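User: I'm preparing a small set of examples for a lab meeting where we compare how different chains pack in three dimensions. I only have the primary sequence for this one, and I'd like the structure in token form so I can line it up with the others. Please keep the answer compact; I'll paste it straight into my notes.
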Amino acid sequence: MAQHSRMTGNEPAYYDRRPAASGALSYGDRLVVRDTTRVLIEAIPFFIPHANSAAELSMKLVRTDRKSGEQTEMTLNSADLYALKRHIGQSLVVAEQPDDGQYIVLQTDRLAAQLDISDDAVGAIGAALESRHLAARIARDANPQVLAEAFSAVVRIGELRSAITELQEHLSEGRNREDVYQAWCERHSWAFGNAYVARDDQRVIGIGDQVDLLMESTASGLRDVYELKRPNMDVILYDDGHHNWYWSAHTAKAIGQCHRYLDTLHRAAENGLHPARRDIVAYHPRAVIIIGRSNDWDAEKLCALHGLNSRMHGITVMTYDQLVSQCQVLLEHVSDSASRSSGAESGGRLSA
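Assistant: Understood. Below is the structure token output for the 352-residue chain.
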């Protein structure tokens, strides 16, 4: 018999997470969202395990009509839940205000958590926001939407910097477990560039085949595969006898693994991955393997990697240092775009 729980405040709660009969996932207690004489609305959390990362949360909402007994269901995935949580938090803050109007909701603790922003800077931002003089100037001169976007850009740029610093720290401190980088990439899918919208929560593409990351192309909506290997693995080696570079055993195995993934994904997802996920389509997918370090490579070795990549079709090999460089280029682009946008919109009206 399913247990029901209802939380009315911030009190400690007992939480029972248990495996489903299928063994493929776990679930928690039903949360009663609304219980009246006309309708019962419940939320059921599900935890989807992954071998190399934390379990993903999804939530099934079930509405039962008390009179007819009819039930309707809706499932929210992890991205949906985080988006809803963020919007609810913003709306609750605005709900505490007495009047209608245009509000800027700024999450200052996220600013304080960023590595390159000092406590003094955070305090200065808070003091400035409390200034009646500044508030009057903003109300008179500034477009609230533009100002909100400017604050969002500052926070976003700080998040990107913090993420890059975290990745660099993982590498410099010699952390070589794949799950460390799996977790980082799942949180920061922007690192793979604007060519992709976001990662999918789906990772199983066939019997016995589970990819590290499945990414949706911005232009086509089709999916590509990202495969992560350890940063302490060799990428390419030099053959002194034949005077040429060649793939290391670790990289060659990863290439073979991706060939199988691509064949499986193309066959399985040409018309949708399976009946439950018709939205995931992969037609002639591509794969990117991230493996090893290149921070101490010379120009010759970098050119050799480029040459070996150019001879392959549908698969690209890159190092973790190249991923860091890609992130830094994207950060520079975002920062430059934000500066140009801020200058064009403000016209200098709010300068000190």
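A couple of notes for your slides: The chain has nine helices and 16 strands. Residues 294 and 322 are 7 Å apart (CA to CA).

User: Perfect, thanks.
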